[in-house]
What we know:
The chain is mostly beta strands. The protein contains two helices and 15 strands. The longest helix has 7 residues, at 6-12. The protein is globular.
Amino acid sequence: MKIMEQSEFEKTNVFGTGKPNEAYAKYFIGNSFINPLTDPKQTPIHLSNVTFEPGCRNNWHIHHASKGGGQILICTAGSGWYQEEGKDAVSLEPGCVIVIPAQTKHWHGAKADSWFSHIAMEVPGNNTSNEWLEPVSEQEYQKLK
């Protein structure tokens, strides 16, 4: 469901926009926001609602792990994109669940004409780390329909 107006989007963004995602801003094109849903001191599974303004997306990245690991995205509001290296982009709508295995180069974010939110869950594993790579080029992004 594409939603361009932020005020309309906030009515559907049930987990809340949160605060500007300043800690990771250098890995995003556009503005993103983060609302932690769990406290890492209380549970080994960290969940955050990540919100992207229209056109915002993160850089290509890889979640590394020697065992387990990866990421799960649960789409909650608006309309976005997910893409693995070498594959076509997947349209994301509320209710979509994306399971991203460890060692998979990928990116995700909002469509150019919609706000977008997903819950991001880092899958527990051994020796986990995140490797941030190059931005998704404007040329690559504008090809998506």
